[in-house]
Amino acid sequence: MVNPVLFIVVPLGLAFAIPLLKYISKKIIRFVPALAFLFNLVFALRLIPVVMDHPVHVHIGGFIPPMGINLVAGPVGMLFVVLIALVGFLVSVYAFHPVKEKYEDRYHILYMLQLTGATGVVLTGDIFNLFVFFEILCLASYSLVAYLGNRAGIESAVKYLIQGSLGSGLILIGIGLLYGQFGTLNMADIAGRIHSVQPVSVYVPLVLFITGFGVEAALFPLNAWLPDAHSSAPTTISAVLSGIAIEVGLYAVLRVVFTLFGISNMMGFFLVLGVLTLLIGELCAFSQDNIKRMLAFSSIGQIGLLVFAFSLASTQGITGGFFQLASHTLGKALLFLAAGYMITRTGSMEIASFKGMGKTMPFTSLAFTIGAFSMVGLPPFMGFPGKFMILKAALHDGQMLTLILLGFILIATVIEGAYFFRVVQVLYFAGDDLPDRERAPAAFSRLVPIFLFTGLIIVLGIYPSLITDLLDASALELLDRPGFIKSIIP
Amino acid sequence: MRKLISIILLGIVATGLFMSISQIPFGEPGERMGDHFIREGVKETGATNIVTAVVVSYRGFDTLGEVTVLFTAAMGLGAVIGLVRRKKTHPVIEPASLIVYTGCRFLFPVILLVGTYIVIHGHLTPGGGFQGGAVVASAFLLMYLGCRGKRIRENLSRGLESLGGLLFILLGVTGLLIGGDFLFNFLPLGEAGTLISAGIIPLIYLAVGLKVGSELAGIIDHLIENTDELSE
User: Fold this and answer.
1) Phi, psi (degrees; rounded to nearest 5) at A70
2) Torsional class of A68: left (φ above 0), alpha (ψ -120 to 50), beta (otherwise)
3) Which of B12, B20, B55, B154 to mutate: most A Cβ within 10 Å?
4) Residues of chain B above pLDDT 90, percent
5) Which residues of A touch B60 (CB under 8 A)?
6) Which residues of A touch B56 (CB under 8 A)?
């Protein structure tokens, strides 16, 4: 059994080593991120059966919590570690074919740090340590958005930087207030004491946390940075930002709401917030002509759906939420990679310029179509079981508010279907006056990740039971707050 | 109307902040973690500087994270600022006056010495890797002011940066192999208050000092190169 701390330390160490490796050979550094995340993927998958039995606790430096920092590798943490490693590995294979020659080493370092930060956030059991890793994730994201060095990239990176730093500042104030009251930073320890004080003295930290993490999680109305940042970043980074970064932000919100504060009387607010985020995201996506902006707005919509699913606060709802989260991670990474690959050929992000790509790039177009169908929720792709589980959970919940909101969700899905089918129509049935394009030789390092993402979406769409055990265990971990606290602070 | 809503919201937040802060027992004993650190800190870590004991030992993983935050910021700055730099030009540099020039040459080694002292004595007296590293970097800033035209070698500073980070991780992994926990203090604690004591704490601070010093010097270098061009 591998110690979970290595999922953080190995990529971090390799990132530190890249400037030295550069002296040996400039060529090898582009394979380092793939190596690191392949290690994480293989060992995280092997750790999952152990974690399903009982969570693995790691005490850094040998200090027993709450004195030292601890890592909690439970089902939720490992689910995220596997997703991060999987997307990290496949996207770094896509980057074998460099995005830009200049400063390639810095790109790879920042890419690895970004995903190391994400892994740290989902594994740690200490609220300040979570903040530190969250900062690593955010800082690396800001600079990677600006990596192409064009005007749009730098402008959106600055927007992202300002909103993100404001959010981080709020989180830090929240942590300070909690530490002042409880004298401890361990999440389980705080959670065990939070009901011993009057609720009125902890509502400000709660609000600060939700607002701060909400910026990264792209909750409405804190998501103004997202469409610009996701659309002007390099293709690989868009895939990671949409597939990993906002999900990790959402994870932080879930941890705070379910575990740290253990609140159950705010769920109505989150249900409405989720559906509002969903509707606004999908409506904005519908009116876009730029493919990457459309995908970015679609991510906002999907996050809204996830917030709705988790706010049902039932085992079914949370399991469905996690399934949809995994489906969105794989689907959006695929869509961004496929769209990015087509953009390199057409040279334009306008949807109209994709006319007839179904003939020029049949394989990539097919992969994009499958990703789009999965995103809408058509069987037999991965989006279908996810949306179906959420639908079932909402019907099972049966409250008037939930049912009304469910109606809005169905409307949003119709809108989602409309704009995705529009792209598919442009790809295949855009009429006769096709632009004359040569079929260029395919870059295998780009096609292989696209192929693997497509395969995963189909396989998990047909056999959802491959992962539902892990997702059920994750839902239990989130809902069983006393058990979580007891396993860390006996 | 908008102002009224803002004022009401501000009032709610202010009341909440007040309610939270009024619960905090400032300066009173009985804090859960703080008490433990003060009473047991020297015994458990061997460092007489309790701040260092907390920063490097109890919360050493946070420190690794903070070092990484700084590394990320330096990398990001290098990647973004490098993009703005268009062509390498050599503007005529006006030399500094004799007083500044002589002062810099005299102070440079002294500041380096003080910085190194602060790094090495981090577990005994106030200071440590971050503070000492910042002092070392300030020596290079002074050199840029006084001895204009001199540059640090970028390859060297980036190599040291990497070595510092790798040393930190290597110490942590050695602890994992020997003691079963990452960053476990596997060296003997020695007699508290002597230079060679507290196990791996001075070594970690040495790594941090190396990294912070070279990183901040690198950041200064990047920023100076860029203003050179803007002034044209």
Assistant:
1) -125, 155
2) beta
3) B20
4) 23
5) 60-61, 69
6) none
Please count the other Cβ atoms lying within 10 Å of the Cβ belonging to residue A120.
28
Q: Could you tell me if residue B13 is inside a domain?
A: no
Tens-place pLDDT, residues A376-398: 988 889 989 999 999 999 998 88
Counting the structural domains of chain B, the total is 1
Min Cα separation A172/chain B (Å): 14
Taking an 8 Å cut-off on Cβ atoms, the answer to whether A60 and B183 are in contact is yes
Q: How confident is the model at residue A13 (pLDDT cuts 50, 70, 90)?
A: very high
Contact between B16 and A200 using a beta-carbon 8 Å cutoff? yes
Q: How many CB atoms lie within 10 A of CB A458?
A: 15
Whether residue B40 is contained in a domain is answered as no
- pLDDT above 60: residue A314: yes
Task: Please tell me what DSSP assigns to residue A353.
Answer: G
Distance of alpha carbon A299 from alpha carbon A227, whole angstroms: 9
Cβ distance A12 to B13 less than 8 Å, yes or no, reads: no
DSSP-derived secondary structure for B17-48 = HHHHHHTS-TT-S--HHHHHHHHHHHHHH--S
| Site from A6, A56, A67 to mutate, B interface, most B CB atoms within 10 angstroms | A67
Query: How many residues does this entry show for chain B?
Result: 232
The count of CB pairs under 8 A between chains A and B is 173
Complex-level ipTM: 0.89
- Which chain B residue shows the shortest CA-CA distance from A146? B80
The C-alpha of A66 sits at a distance from chain B's nearest C-alpha, in angstroms, of 7
pTM beyond 0.90, yes or no: yes
For B168, which residue in chain A has the nearest alpha carbon? Answer: A13
User: Cβ–Cβ contacts within 10 Å for residue B77, how many?
Assistant: 18
Q: Which amino acid is at B15?
A: T
Range of the domain at B203: 48-230
Which of A2, A6, A16 best tests the B interface by mutation, with the highest count of B CBs <10 A? A16
Residue B11 lies in a domain: no
Is the Cβ pair A143, B76 closer than 8 Å?
A: yes
Out of B79, B166, B181, whose CB is closest to A62? B181
Min mean pLDDT across A107-111, A331-335, B221-225 is at: B221-225
* Inter-chain CB proximity A106 and B75 less than 8 Å: yes
How far does B218 lie from chain A, in Å, by closest CA?
14
Would you say residue A489 has pLDDT above 60? yes
Beta strands in B34-86 (DSSP E): none
- Determine whether the interchain pair B181/A58 forms a contact, defined as Cβ–Cβ distance below 8 Å: yes
Q: Which of B9, B33, B168 to mutate to test the interface with A (most CBs of A within 10 A)?
A: B33
Sequence-ordered strand ranges (E) for A294-385: none
pLDDT digits (tens, 9 = 90+) for B41-99: 888 888 888 888 888 888 889 999 999 999 999 888 888 877 665 555 555 667 778 88
Round to whole Å and give the CA distance between A81 and A148.
Answer: 28
Instruction: In whole angstroms, give the CA distance from residue B184 to residue B45.
Output: 11
Each residue's pLDDT tens digit, A20-63: 888 888 888 889 999 999 999 999 999 999 888 888 888 888 88
Is residue B103 assigned to a domain?
yes
Q: Cβ contact (<8 Å) for A140 and B72?
A: yes
Tokens of B37: 């650190």
If one counts every other C-beta atom within 10 angstroms of the C-beta of residue A27, the result is: 7
pLDDT band for position A296 (cuts 50, 70, 90): very high
